[in-house]
TrEMBL record:
It comes from Stenomitos frigidus AS-A4. This is Adenylate kinase. Belongs to the adenylate kinase family. Its EC number is 2.7.4.3. AMP binds at T32, R37, N58, L59, V60, G86, F87, P88, R89, Q93, R130, R141. ATP binds at G11, A12, G13, K14, G15, T16, R128, I169. Pathway: Purine metabolism; AMP biosynthesis via salvage pathway; AMP from ADP: step 1/1. Monomer. The keyword Transmembrane does not apply. Consists of three domains, a large central CORE domain and two small peripheral domains, NMPbind and LID, which undergo movements during catalysis. The LID domain closes over the site of phosphoryl transfer upon ATP binding. Assembling and dissambling the active center during each catalytic cycle provides an effective means to prevent ATP hydrolysis. Its main location: cytoplasm.
């Protein structure tokens, strides 16, 4: 069973690829962005706290997202594998995840970075048109990515299970490459 962490800038294709791999490998796709958007839409206490951060393109505070992930990974469908999409997004979250995985005696198999140039990311996100896909918010999300999330590349490189993949090719070609990796991890 695979345990994969997807890294990459907003619009790099984390959600697209995580969804495709989850369908193929029958392991849960855990997207913090999707969980937070559902919470916002349902106006839950978490959603009410998260909304203004998301609308501005900022990260939701770590304690909220960390609680969310702790709960989600403790659910029974996550015991034999998962694909994490959008978590961790900074070093505090990555250290938390490392500690959690030690506690539950599960190591991750790969941290996978999807590499896409900024100008391509902006065009993709403008084309998608989600509520937080306005040009101003996209620029802010990219800045947050470079300041807080990109340092995770060094963090995971130092752990020896890091892969960087060209995400600037058609989605099906990225999926094909990733399927090979997952098959290796599953064996
Ligand atoms: P996310 O939901 O994680 O959003 P994202 O990074 O913008 O999307 P992703 O990279 O998954 O792009 P996608 O595949 O959809 O986060 C949203 C917000 O939630 C954050 O700003 C933050 O506020 C909050 N949040 C989430 N996690 C958090 C955390 N851990 N801590 C704190 N806050 C958190 O692809 C985008 C577009 O590109 C699509 O239209 C797709 O069709 C297209 N595309 C994908 N791959 C392509 C390819 N290879 N070629 C051409 N187009 C492609």
């Amino acid at each position: 069973m695979a345990r994969l962490i997807f890294l990459g800038a907003p619009g790099a294709g984390k959600g697209t690829q995580a969804k495709a791999l989850a369908a193929f490998s029958h392991i849960p796709h855990i997207s913090t962005g999707d969980i937070l958007r559902t919470a916002v839409a349902s106006q839950t206490p978490l959603g009410l706290k998260a909304q203004s951060y998301m609308d501005q393109g900022n990260l939701v505070p770590d304690p909220l997202v960390i609680d969310l992930i702790r709960d989600r990974l403790s659910q029974s469908d996550a015991h034999n594998g998962w694909i994490l999409d959008g978590f961790p997004r900074n070093v505090v979250q990555a250290v938390f995840l490392d500690e959690l995985l030690v506690d539950i005696s599960h190591a991750y198999d790969y941290a996978i970075n999807l590499d896409v140039p900024d100008d391509v990311l902006v065009q993709r996100l403008l084309g998608r048109g989600r509520q937080d896909d306005t040009e101003e918010v996209i620029r802010r999300r990219l800045q947050v990515y470079h300041d807080q999330t990109a340092p995770l590349i060094n963090f995971y490189q130092s752990q020896d299970k890091f892969l960087s993949i060209n995400g600037n090719i058609p989605p099906e070609a990225v999926t094909e490459e990733l399927r090979g990796l997952v098959q290796k991890a599953v064996v």
